[in-house]
Amino acid sequence: MASRRVISRLINASQHTGCPCHGCASHSHQQLAAVSQVRSMATPVQTVQKEYAFEVSGSNLRFGDGVTAEVGMDLKNMKARKIGVFTDPIVAKLKPMETALRSLQSQEDLPFEVYDQVLAEPTEDSWKKAISWAREHDFSHFLAVGGGSVIDTAKAANLFTVYKDADLMDYINAPIGKGLPVQHTLRPLIAVPTTAGTGSETTGAAIVDITSRSFKTGIASRALKPVLGIVDTQNTESCPTAVHISAGLDVLFHSMESYTAIPYTERTPRPANPINRPTYQGSNPVADIFSLWALQTTVKYLPRIAKNRDDEEARKQMLLAASFAGIGFGNAGVHLCHGMSYPISGLNKQGPKYKHAGYEVDHPIIPHGVSVALTGPAVFQFTSPSSPDRHRQALAIFTNTTISDPSISRIPDSEIGAYLFEAIARFLDGLGVPRGLKAVGYENKDIEMLVEGTIPQRRVLDLAPGIGDFVGEDGRHHLRRMIESSMEY
After folding, report:
1. What pLDDT, in 10s, does the model give residues 307-323?
2. Are 381 and 423 in contact (CB under 8 A)?
3. pTM for this one?
4. pLDDT in tens, 388-425
5. Is 300 helix (H, G, I), strand (E, B) or coil?
6. Are 368 and 340 in contact (CB under 8 A)?
7. Chain-centre distance of CA 267, in angstroms?
8. I need a labelling partner for 36 at 20 to 30 A (CA). Which of 14, 52, 113, 248 fits?
9. What's the whole-number mean pLDDT along residues 185-209?
10. Measured distance CA(106)–CA(98) in Å, rounded
11. Percent of the chain whose pLDDT exceeds 90
12. Left, alpha or beta for 195 (phi > 0: left; psi -120 to 50: alpha)?
């Protein structure tokens, strides 16, 4: 069956194509009559309305040097009965966790338990273990100290503590899972990020690797948002350079993708009930402000961290950028880079088995930020025609100038994408990012597998400009071309 988008294009063409022989109005009326006759014989199709509203949501944020020490008082003020503390085996031994535990211990009658087995790039099995542990303890509050993997795992544990009898797939995004709406209030979660990347402290998204299907997906609901994000500029001091870079790449493409996503007014269908309005809504005026600032800041400061991870000003600015980008994409969404990154990282475990240098793990890993960046140049060359002005603005940022500079303003709209491809590629080269999918072990024979792994990522592909009917042959063709262009450059 043809998709609604395809049908709409066909009807539009029939209504606006003139008669090649006569160019007469009566022929157009005959076409309309013919379409009406066909419609009268077909099953009625309900008109799909476009969105007309957007919502702005985000966690409360606290920025400052050493503010992790306040978390015990925060939880005491919330009258916490019992706290579930989540971290990973590495952060468990570092200063941020030490500070958080000391703060909890400083408060009287504030019991807590620690789960320090969160997996970097979590899987459905690692989530299930964390959920089972949380359900056994019936926590009233949650605290996550770590990167995006830790915060996302705590979000999942929180959700399934409240929904005790639910299966993981009940809330995993459709069409992979059921994508049920979260209708009950979850327990309060405080997030203390130790990387400047995911922005998970600001969002209602949690990402997981479904190893049985070799790609990532997640859960997206405003109900998952932490009630407070504690952004402590001291907490990235111990972060290795490789982690700084990968996390920063996530900030870069969060901001780029949310800024270039389809406008919220183009998203379909309009929800019949506001509870069904998605977290990822399309670009909008509020998200644009946060995303653009995050993009400018990341382009300026991430290369400085790559050269010197002790650059205090750069670390502080990147933490701000991560949270700003989180607010941006948390309300607008991401699209193609993230959609394709999920099979790129997921298939790696069975396929190339690439292990990124600088990551202290005992399993193959293409860090999330790196997996997102690998397709970046090709993606933004593809999306450029959808909004040349926005892509021109991005090009000006990457080239450290303004859109009024003749070097930018004189570029024809049709060529912006090619210039942006080269600018992004140069930026990634400067950070030492692997130069394409072949550099992490993928081969041309893997292209179809990567396309098929991308197709189920409807939550983000729905926001991709220019992709059309992505589950049809047109969409597959576009995805295939972008992945081909990303093999090496």
Report:
1. 999 999 999 999 999 99
2. no
3. 0.87
4. 999 999 999 999 999 999 999 999 999 999 999 999 99
5. helix
6. no
7. 17
8. 52
9. 96
10. 12
11. 83
12. beta
